[in-house]
Amino acid sequence: MPSFPWTTAILLYAFNLLLAAGRAAMVNARRTLLEQWRDEGRRGAGLALRLANESTRLIAASRGAQMVCRVAVCLTAAQVFSGLWPVVLPGRDLTGWGWLVAVLLLAVLIALGEVVAEALALRAPEAVSLTLAPLIGLTEIIFWPFTWTLLRVGGGRIGPRGVPAVVTEEEIKTLVDAGEEGGAIEEEEKEMIYSIFKLGDTLVREVMVPRIDIQAVEAKMPLPAAVDIAIRHGHSRLPVYENSVDNVIGLVHVKDLLRATREERPVALRDILRPVHFVPEAKKADELLAELQSQRIHMAVVVDEYGGTAGVVTIEDLLEEIVGEIRDEYDAAEEAAIVRTGEDEYLLDAGLNINEVNEELDVHLTDEFGDTLGGLLYAQLGKVPERGESVWVEGFRWIVEQVAGRRIRRVRAVRLPQSPLPESEVEGEG
């Protein structure tokens, strides 16, 4: 039996492994180090950097070449084993077994050979990239027609540096998790990245300052009174309304207020108004952030489905969804939104979003009755709440701890092994 088919199969197999190793190395190589090596004049660094930056073409060309190698190895192996059976078992036609062995060989080739090659390459991706750059570059040239066709048919898009823009959210989160486990990313950085994705699922009404908490001034209010409100509450901008908060006619900046108070001639609040930006409460928070940034707007008034004022939202409110609470020396001390007061007991701000409560307490409250914890309790109680009233929901007793007028301020949550009352049953103070 000639040795040529065996030699061909081994060479093709080795070429396939080198392609797998080269692709894994270049995709994961640090571009900054390759750039440094290129500037230092290291041989192959420039080519390796170009291939790494053109990862779409690199992946397409290497996979195309690997596909050819796999098919060729299978055909060669099938030819070898088909000719081997008559020698081992004369008088029997076992050609089909040769093909079966070839298929099994392909499975082993993918499962073992390529995985091992890629794992070894990832130990020193930059060095492997330099070594295999000529081989990968030649492969890219040979398979250019295949690569071009594949990218066109698959809808691939090559950016300025050849890097594809299509990366899924789950892929990024997987990389972030791996980075945290490896120590490259801190937990705070991971949470911030996760918050960016979460912002795309957050509605403006979930982050806005609700109508009841809006600090606004009436259009006919004297300037000194408006200045006093701005200073007392520490706001740089105030909505200005006429007759009702539902009729916001503009915004006033505290700098304009202070400047106007120094004018010799009388200045009315209407004279220094700035345009107001209105947004629907169902708008996505990430879209609003981009909108405010592009138009250089700091504050927007949120309107409900009936056109009334639902609240206000600032860029700071949106950024806090990503980086957490932003406080300065002028902010008054506030109670923490969630305080653990016992092993299974918590004190919560009633304005907390239902999703935040679910994450912190590991419960599954639904937002069908409102976006906030206070809204949920209002719906469950079915009336204006009084201090001490409680409901049983999701294994917790939710107690109205503090009220201000008709508004729930603080809620105490007590987890019990088993609710003694049916779910959502209301209990009075005494």
Overview of this protein structure:
There is one protein chain. It is elongated, with a radius of gyration of 33 Å. The chain has helices at residues 4-28, 31-39, 45-53, 55-88, 95-121, 125-142, 144-153, 169-181, 187-199, 204-207, 223-233, 254-261, 285-295, 315-323, 354-361, 373-381, and strands at 209-210, 217-218, 237-242, 244-253, 278-280, 299-303, 309-314, 338-342, 345-349, 390-393, 396-404, 407-415, 426-427. The protein folds into 3 domains: 4-166, no CATH class; 204-323, CBS-domain, CATH 3.10.580; 338-427, Uridine Diphospho-n-acetylenolpyruvylglucosamine Reductase, domain 3 (2-Layer Sandwich). It is of the alpha+beta class and 430 residues long. The strands form 3 sheets. The chain has a 6-stranded antiparallel beta sheet with strand order 8-9-12-11-10-13, covered by helices on one side. Strand 3 and strand 4 (244-253) form a beta hairpin.
Short summary:
With 430 residues, this protein is α+β, with helices and mostly antiparallel strands. Helices cover 51% and strands 16% of the residues. It has three domains: 4-166, no CATH class; 204-323, CBS-domain (Roll), CATH 3.10.580; 338-427, 2-Layer Sandwich (Uridine Diphospho-n-acetylenolpyruvylglucosamine Reductase, domain 3), CATH 3.30.465.
